[in-house]
Amino acid sequence: MPRPIQATIHTDALRHNLARVRQLAPDARVWSVVKANAYGHGLERVFEALRGSDGFALLDLEEASRLRALGWRGPILLLEGVFEPRDLEHCSRMSLWHVVHCNEQIDMLAAHKTHAPHRVFLKMNSGMNRLGFVPDAFRSAWQRLNALTQVDEISLMTHFSDAEGPHGIAAQLDRFENATRDLPGERSLCNSAAILRHMGGNAPRPLHSDWVRAGLMLYGAAPDFPQHGAHDWQLQPTMTLSTRLVALQDLRAGDTVGYGSSFTAPGAMRIGIAACGYADGYLRASTQAPVLVNGVRTVTVGRVSMDLLAVDLTPVPSAAMGSEVTLWGRASDGAQLAIDAVAQAGASIAYELMCGLAARVPVRVE
Ligand SMILES: *Cc1c(COP(=O)(O)O)cnc(C)c1O
Predict the structure, then answer these.
(1) What's the rounded Cα separation, in Å, for the pair 99 and 82?
(2) CA angle, 191 then 240 then 260, to 5°
(3) Percent of the chain clearing pLDDT 70 (strictly above)
(4) Which of 206-215, 218-227, 231-240, 342-351 comes out lowest in average pLDDT?
(5) 0.90 cut: is pTM over it?
(6) Domain harbouring 325, CATH code
(7) Does residue 262 sit within a domain?
(8) Which residues are known to be catalytic?
(9) What is the domain extent for residue 35?
(10) Which mutation among 191, 235, 349 tests ligand 1's pocket best, with the greatest number of atoms within 8 A of CB?
(11) Domain tally for the chain?
């Protein structure tokens, strides 16, 4: 028998979550963001379920070419644009749309030879201070692009740093709107947090975005956890990580568990040893992380090691060798464990857990 760890990708949940994006942004076209191998899910595994998207957004030419190989002929957007002049040849060949966030990328375009002009998304740095032209430089960048025969339509975009938190998007939105007021072109503003919190019926200032860029919410996690959970946003988990108990230990008071003896049993208790560790993508920093055994919620105890972790079986007297352990996602009895809560117990976020699913974990699609 192979080692019992397994990830499962739930395509029904992907479809449901995409429908939620459409519900919240009914007038927008939807980029499904599939960078980082579809947030660790696997581009090929999510493609069919997300085929109803208007386009796919990602970073790597290699991933773009895998999408084309799957038969996708619609829009693909390179979210960071090109990194060297040769990349533009691939954009021409595969009809990729690309972000332009700096003058060097405009220089490369100006020197590029192409028959079909490129559709570009000109990015403004409205406050995040990672990529993009500051508002004062935005118009001249637009004019430079607009004068190039290599460039077709120019869309305008920015990215919010605080859409999921109390700081909000107002200041960035003001900067973007003021600097783009009289520029033509479609707008692309919203990531998942902005779609969930700032679009839809109850947003204080209804946001217009011709293209939304949905990432995390497609994968059924909540960008503003713990204020909201995926359930509050009516999103369904798209990834389950599960394994089985491969050993049981009956502890007496004072016995310790794992490397560094960081957990000491306060009294007699039974623990289970699950076949999952940090080499599978589970966070080593986790302490008392929630976990399901036979669908019953309990916690991890002691340090996570490379291949194994320990769980408290006190709430699960039925647990035995081979019992199902759900690290996140859906248990076979239907119980759910939010990946957001598991990430929080490891001082992280759902994004990191999904993207960090290790290559050695077998993945099933259902
Ligand atoms: C990753 C990314 C997104 C998607 O963000 P989520 O929070 O996962 O929805 C949107 N826009 C840009 C520019 C990104 O890099």
Answers:
(1) 8
(2) 100
(3) 99
(4) 206-215
(5) yes
(6) 2.40.37.10
(7) yes
(8) 35, 259
(9) 11-219
(10) 191
(11) 2
